[in-house]
From TrEMBL:
<dbReference type="InterPro" id="IPR002539">
    <property type="entry name" value="MaoC-like_dom"/>
</dbReference>
<dbReference type="GO" id="GO:0044594">
    <property type="term" value="F:17-beta-hydroxysteroid dehydrogenase (NAD+) activity"/>
</dbReference>
<protein>
    <submittedName>
        <fullName>Putative dehydrogenase</fullName>
    </submittedName>
</protein>
<dbReference type="Pfam" id="PF01575">
    <property type="entry name" value="MaoC_dehydratas"/>
</dbReference>
<dbReference type="InterPro" id="IPR029069">
    <property type="entry name" value="HotDog_dom_sf"/>
</dbReference>
<dbReference type="GO" id="GO:0006635">
    <property type="term" value="P:fatty acid beta-oxidation"/>
</dbReference>
<feature type="domain" description="MaoC-like">
    <location>
        <begin position="2"/>
        <end position="96"/>
    </location>
</feature>
<dbReference type="GO" id="GO:0003857">
    <property type="term" value="F:(3S)-3-hydroxyacyl-CoA dehydrogenase (NAD+) activity"/>
</dbReference>
<dbReference type="GO" id="GO:0004300">
    <property type="term" value="F:enoyl-CoA hydratase activity"/>
</dbReference>
<comment type="similarity">
    <text>Belongs to the enoyl-CoA hydratase/isomerase family.</text>
</comment>
Amino acid sequence: MPTGENQAALYRLLGDRHHMHVDPAAARAAGQPRPFLHGLCTLAAVLFPIADEAGAHPSDLRTLSSRFAGPVFPGDVVEVGVRPGETAVGFEASVGDRPVLTGGEVRFR
């Protein structure tokens, strides 16, 4: 799943205006080399390929959980691994060999 170079700036329209997502100095102050995506932006974005893999529509979402394990930088390609189960779908996401979401679980209607 590719991320857009402007994805963090667009996500700010939903109300999360932390400067670390668009301002290089604020990102460095937060311990990151450059601005990074909002965690919830990453989580929401991976929902689409997971729903597709599960044969569900994203609007059928009932529960979604995961551990934020690392940053996603605008322009990164996020790889999503899915483990279908009887009642829930497990997932992990990474950028290259760096985990970004771990222990994920999603349930659809």
